[in-house]
Structure formats: structure tokens, C-alpha cells
Amino acid sequence: MDFESYLRECQQRLSAATSRVKDFAVFDFNHIPDQPLMREECQRLIDIKLRFSLTGIPTHLAVIGSRGSGKTLTLKYLQTIIPSRTDLTVLYANCRTHNTSFKILAHLLGVQARGASLTELYDRFRVRYPNKTVVVLDEVDLMSLKDRRREILYLLSRSEAPYMVIMLSNNPHVLKELDPATMSSLQPELIHFRNYNADQIAAILQDRANRGLHEWDKGSLSHVAALTVRNANADARLAIKTLYYSVTETRRDVEQCFEKARHDIVVDMIHDLSDPNLMILKAVSLRGTDFVKEIYERYCRLSHSRYLKPFSYVYFYSNLSYLQSVGLIALLSAKVGRSYTNRAVLTFDQSILDTVSKLRLDA
Ligand SMILES: Nc1ncnc2c1ncn2[C@@H]1O[C@H](COP(=O)(O)OP(=O)(O)O)[C@@H](O)[C@H]1O
Ligand SMILES: [Mg+2]
After folding, report:
1. Separation CA 187–CA 176 (nearest Å)
2. What is the C-alpha separation between 93 and 178, in angstroms, rounded?
3. Measured in Å, how far apart are the chain's first and last C-alpha atoms?
4. Domains in the chain: ranges and CATH
5. Max alpha carbon distance in the chain (Å)?
6. Nearest residue CA, atom 1 of ligand 1?
7. Residues within a 6 A CB radius of ligand 1
8. Beta-carbon contacts of residue 10 (< 8 Å; ≥ 6 apart)
9. Mutation to probe ligand 1, out of 73, 81, 211 (largest number of atoms < 8 A from CB)
10. Which helix (H) or strand (E) holds 336?
11. Could you tell me the pLDDT band of residue 344, with boundaries at 50, 70 and 90?
12. What is the DSSP letter of 232?
């Protein structure tokens, strides 16, 4: 085929695909639907916020759930409806982007804060937000190691001003990592977002289809939902991306679209990992046994070869469980001799990891 005819064929294919789509925005992961699917966990969140609004006494929360269980969307949606119906101010920061207490406060104040101290910034925060305020800290486990004590949690929970903290995380271990002093003033209540079931994923897809597509096939929505629940820990993001491919990539069937979407999402996730987590993942993949103890040794060797101080075993292990919570590895317990030994294995095609780690770690 020559250039011209290939170009023409591509154009035809694309215009056939785009003619099926009414609104591409519904495939954007940051899209906030008008009516998100309501689940029990959301009711508790609303109850607690209303109680705070009435009494001024905060209940700090830790919202924990796997990737794609709707944590970010739910809190962002509530941010659009709560302030207009109550006297609460709701603030949101993502700790992946703003990864120290200092950067979070600067972000919430909308300032460039070079030169100021954390205390100065916090004083400004108190002046700016004297009233009942809910501070949502998304992906709180991704705060930098430089801020291991997560000072902002301590400040907000100790404050005389009515501040309520809602931490979101994929990683159930995040609470164990908190400083004892912070933990005792925060005393967060836990809200666990369960994984969606296939009907719920199908309902989420149905809503996107209603809003964003001219035509679709109901059977394939259920098929995508079933694949997502069965093979991808019910990550709604993957379902939405699969739907996107199944309308725009007409030459692929649903299962191929699902694999393509999964590949993209794994690449994104690996790109987003911190260097230590990337190294841990690399250590999982390197030749040798899959016993966690040995993976730790391989990880230490990788760190030393880069003149980096490795994490302690405990901290290494909590990072392993983070990698499990985002679905990149599976932690298994296997009986060896008389005792149980922990093992870790990758859940995706290793070649993706090799490409990224070659670029980032030269390993
Ligand atoms: N209840 C829901 N209703 C509609 N869309 C949802 C719902 N839950 C999740 N989604 C969509 O699924 C994707 C992943 O959800 P997200 O909130 O980012 O998950 P998490 O923060 O738990 O990883 C987002 O695009 C989001 O809009
Ligand atoms: Mg999220």
C-alpha cells in the first residue's frame, strides 16, 4: 500500500469511529458525570460531612480502596455539591503532584511559597480559611519521603480551627506509616471503598455511553464489565478505556481492546512510580526466586549500585503492598517446609517494565 492510500484508509476509519461518538469528554478520566453511580460508602461520607457542618466537630477520615474504585471521583463530585448546600468549604489536593506539606499548603493558598517557612504558610492558611473546612488529600501515601511525618496532618488535626481531613489512598498500609503523635490526634475513621461488581461497572459504562455515544451495543458493555471485574481487580478506569477503544478501534474485538487498554494503563502506572518503587518492581522481575526476602536483597543490591540507601525491610514491604494495591504485583503466601513464606510476582508483561526501567534506571 502506498502512503496516499494508507492515509485515506486511516481517515475513513477514523471518521467512521468518530461519527459514533457524541462527546469525547466522557472518556477523560477526570470527567465528572452529572450523576455518578451512588454506593453505600458515599452515604456515610455525606452523613459525616453534614454532621461536621451542624456541630463543627470534625471526624477525620481515611478512605481506602483499590485503584479505580471511585475514591477520587466521589470526593470531587461531593466538592461540587456540598459547599452550595452547607456552610462547609471543601479543598482538594493531590499528594502525587503536591508531595510535601509545604507544597500542599502553597497549592491550597494558590501561592508560590519560596522562602516562607511551613509555619508561616500554615498561619496564612488559618487566616484564609477561618471557617469549617474539609481538606481532601488524595493519594496521601505518595507524599515524599522528605516529609515522612506528614506534618500537614498533624497541623490540621491539632488546629483549634474547625478542620476536617479526608485522606484517600489505594494503600491500606498508609495508616500504619503515620507518626504516632499524628495518629493520636487524627484518629481517623476508616471508610473502605469495596471493588465494584460487574453490574456497577456496567452501570458506569452505560452512563458514559448514554452521554457520549450515538450508538453502542449493550452486550459489549456487559462483556467489558465482566472482563474488568474478573481480570483487572474491577478498575473502572480500565473499563472506560476499553469502551473507548471498542468504539474507536473498529478492527479489534472487545478482548483485544481490553488488552490494549490494560497495556496503556500499566505503562502509565509504571511511568508514575517513584524511583524506589520502580527499583522494587525491577527487583521483583529479576532472575532468582520470587520469595519476598530474596527480592529485598536484590532491591538492596540495585539501590547500592546506584549509591542510594535502600529502605528498611518494613518500609520496603509497605511499598510492596502499595504495588499490590495498584495491581502491578500479586503477593502470595506459599508453604515452604513447615512455615509460610511470602512471594511476589508481576501481574503484567515484563517487557513493559524493561523498557521503562532501561530509560529511568538504566537497568
Ligand atoms: N461511581 C462512579 N460513577 C461514575 N463513574 C465512576 C464511578 N466510580 C469511578 N468512576 C470513574 O472511573 C474512573 C476511576 O475512578 P477514580 O475515582 O479515579 O478511582 P480511584 O480514585 O479510586 O482510583 C474515573 O474515570 C471515574 O470517573
Ligand atoms: Mg484516585
Report:
1. 12
2. 19
3. 39
4. 3-31+196-270 (1.10.8.60), 40-193 (3.40.50.300), 273-361 (1.10.10.10)
5. 72
6. 37
7. 29, 31, 33, 36-37, 65, 67-73, 204, 236-237, 240
8. none
9. 73
10. strand 329-336
11. very high
12. S
Ligand nearest, relative to CA of residue 73: 1
Q: Which atom in ligand 1 lies closest to the alpha carbon of residue 138?
A: 21
Mean pLDDT on 173-188: 89
Q: Is residue 205 packed enough to be buried (19+ CB in 10 Å), middle (13-18) or exposed (0-12)? A: buried
SS3 310: coil
Per-residue exposure over 305-330, b if at least 16 CB sit within 10 Å of its own CB, e if not: eeeeebbeeeebbbbbbbbbbbbbbe
Mean pLDDT, residues 160-174 taken together? 92
Which ligand 1 atom is the nearest neighbour of the CA of 31? 27
Atom 6 of ligand 1: nearest residue by CA position? 70
- List, in order, residues 6 or more apart from 215 with CB less than 8 Å away: 20
Q: Looking at ligand 1, which atom is closest to the CA of residue 168? A: 21
Confidence of residue 274 (pLDDT cuts 50, 70, 90): confident
Q: pTM of this prediction?
A: 0.89
The three cell numbers locating residue 38 = 451512588
Contacts of 323 (CB under 8 A, 6+ apart): 277, 280, 281, 284, 329
How many Å apart are CA 126 and CA 161, to the nearest integer? 7
Cβ–Cβ < 8 Å for 52, 82 = no
Q: How many residues does the chain have?
A: 363
One-letter identity of residue 25? A
What pLDDT, on a 0 to 100 scale, did the predictor assign at position 251? 83
Residues around the ion ligand 2 (C-beta < 5 A): 72
β-sheet bridge partners, residue 291? 343
